[in-house]
Amino acid sequence: MLRVAYLLSHPIQYQSPLLRHLASQPEIDLTVFYTSDFSLRSYRDRGFGVPVEWDVPLLGGYRHQVLPRLLDGPEISFLRPLNRGIFRALRRGRFDVLWIHGYATLNSWMAMAAAKALRIPVLLRTDSTLIDHPRGPARLALKRLFFALLRPFVYGVLSVGERNAEYWRHHLGRDVPLFPIPYAVDNAFFLERCQTAAATREDLRRELELAQDRPVILFASKLLERKRCMDLVEAYLKIATRPRPYLLIVGDGEERKRMEARLREAGDEAEGIRLLGFRNQSELPRYYDLCDVFVLPSVHEPWGLAVNEAMNAGRAIVVSDQVGCQPDLVADGDNGCVFPAGDVPALAGALTRVLADPTVCRRMGQRSLQRIQSFSFEENSKGLLRAFAAAHQSKR
């Protein structure tokens, strides 16, 4: 049995089901070290702009410990949270492998330094991609120096998808051991909840005052500028198909006031748009089940796990070419459409194509459901076992 330590900033709704799954594997003895527990309490999420208290279990089913804190807070930065006791915890646990999510905090660097001193191989995982904001020569030089310093502390990396693999090879070199660990959500949870939601679909339709003969477009994410929900609103206003679709916007954040002003300006043209605010994790399957097409028009999006969730409902997907999961999950013309990020007419065209023929739209949804099956916790476990075993073997 491999003794694995996992350093994570705080309990995360997407990670906890995976940790329970890993802890059930007989080949792995897993201990999760959290640097904060702020997500276990109600806190104001900067992205959503509203108080958040998750309604899915974040703890239980796996061994975990919150490290003693010197600095803490409801947001992650280089210095916060800041903990002590990392070296002692790793030495006492006599771990075979240290797995770290992220590398841009002082805690991560202290853990990597402790692991190096204790001869524990380190595996890194992030969802970063090369689709990022432009950087000048000075910043690029600093980034090259940063990764040159990082490389000796890391045995290998866990890639969540194609673009993430490109990121690691670009920054750490093609000789870095790379293990594909597909980014996944709890497929069983979302599939079961979406199937259950189908029985009350018409209740939700009546609750939202939606006519039965009009298709539904769904956006479900934070209302941040980089999520480009305003592009989706503008594209929707250009759609001329009949019957006219509805646009449901689930989420909250900094763009909401600007969006409300735009809807007032649009008047009757915006009658089909519903701003529904933040919805918790267990509520989302009802909206995935209700929609015909799910849209994520983001720029600089590392992955986009909401796409995984919507695919479990068997829905057509429209994403921009800057959504990190696109090469892995969305094939243009197969299970949805891909458009150039920021191109509103192209987004309007993509929506028109997907909704033009209900039969084609449903077929795309079926392809989504088939495709998402390989992005699962079961595949994660297989990949992680290979990575942990290789890292442990490297010590010999």
Give a short synopsis of this structure.
This protein is α/β, with parallel strands linked by helices and 396 residues long.
Summing up helix and strand content along with how strands pair, one would put the structural category as: alpha/beta
Number of strands: 17
Quote the distance from N terminus to C terminus: 16 Å
Tell me the fraction of residues in β-strands, as a range.
15-25%
Question: How helix-rich are the residues, as a percent range?
Answer: 25-40%
- Low-confidence spans: none
Main sheet record: 7 strands, parallel
Q: How many structural domains in the coordinates?
A: 2
As for the CATH topology of the largest domain, it is Rossmann fold
Mass-distribution shape: globular
Distinct helical segment count: 15
Assigned CATH architecture of the largest domain: 3-Layer(aba) Sandwich
Structural Rg: 22 Å
Give the CATH H-level superfamily of the largest domain: Glycogen Phosphorylase B
Mean pLDDT: 93
CATH class call of the largest domain: Alpha Beta
Strand order of the largest sheet: 5-2-1-8-9-10-11
